[in-house]
Amino acid sequence: METVVVERTDGVVTITMNRPHRKNAVTRGMLEELRARFEEVERSVDDRVLVLTGAGGDFCSGADLTDADSPVQLASQDPTVAQMRRLGDVVLALHRVTKPTIAKVDGVAVGAGLSLALACDLLVASDRARFSLIFARRGLTLDGGSSWLLPRRVGAGRAKELALFGDLFDAEKALSTGVANRVVPAGELDAACADWADRLAAGPTMALSMTKSLLDGAWSIGLAEALENEAHCQAVNFAGADTAEAMRAFVEKRDARFVGR
Q1: pLDDT (tens digit, 9 = 90+) per residue, 104-120?
Q2: Of 109, 196, 198, 201, which is most buried by a Cβ count within 10 Å?
Q3: Interhelix angle for 156-165 vs 146-154, to 10°?
């Protein structure tokens, strides 16, 4: 069985972690496949939105603790920094996708699974979704980029609460803390995620990509540099086809038809 399934429809790429018998717990092979697929999406001019999800009613239960190919088993046998970097490289590949990314979360998103969800730009969850940064309960520190990603979503105080206790929390708390952008009934999850993905895929790809880059970089720069970055991005937009199309569509009182440049 393929551990990762990829589907493409009208600019939307859906990448599904596919080990439902283990709640999509990750193995080394799955991590390598995910990294390759994220890099493939970034290279493709036809892929405009990435949706990351899991098969069988769960997102991802973290690293598989029992499989011989598990990151946990391999790390126990070879506790080196190089071994630890495997998951980090996957999360970095996802973070570096310049197109909008959406985590579609049903069931559990725990440990490394939650790290992968947090690495997406948007997180849409079902009302039966459950989350945990379980690392402390396993005698571990945060990984998968969650020490960087989580505080940017929820603030330092909330991040410490979620990380130090490692408690399992529900979709309602995920929404109220900012972990999730949107929570919907489980039966509406596919439709809600598809609506957002389709809207983004129909949008001005270059402008959305640069907007994402501006926001991701805003934490490490001052206002003057942010304004300069905005000016450069707007200059690119005004020289491109999508901005001209948007202006024409406004005058003609119709929806814009963006081509992504």
Answers
A1: 999 999 999 999 999 99
A2: 109
A3: 130
- Alpha carbon distance 69, 113 (integer Å): 17
SS3 category, 99: coil
Q: Distance (Å, rounded) from C-alpha 190 to C-alpha 226?
A: 36
Buried b or exposed e, range 70-89, using 16+ CB within 10 angstroms: bbbbbbeeeeeeeeeebbee
Domain match, 131 and 38 both: yes
The answer to whether residues 152 and 130 belong to one domain is yes
218 and 197 in one domain? no
Write down how long the chain is. 261
* Burial letters 113-141, b for 16+ CB under 10 A, else e: bbbbbbbbbbbbbbbbbbbbbbbbeeeee
Residue 113 lies in a domain: yes
Distance of CA 125 to the CA centre of its chain: 12
Based on the fold, state whether residues 131 and 246 are members of the same structural domain. no
Sign of the CA dihedral running 42, 44, 47, 52: negative
Answer yes or no: is 76 within a domain: yes
Let me know if 182 is exposed, middle or buried by CB neighbors in 10 A (0-12, 13-18, 19+): middle
Kindly state the tokens that stand for 182: 């949107």
Question: Is 235 a residue whose pLDDT tops 90?
Answer: yes
The whole-number average pLDDT for the span 13-22 is: 97
* Boundaries of domain holding 240: 205-251
0.90 surpassed by pTM: yes
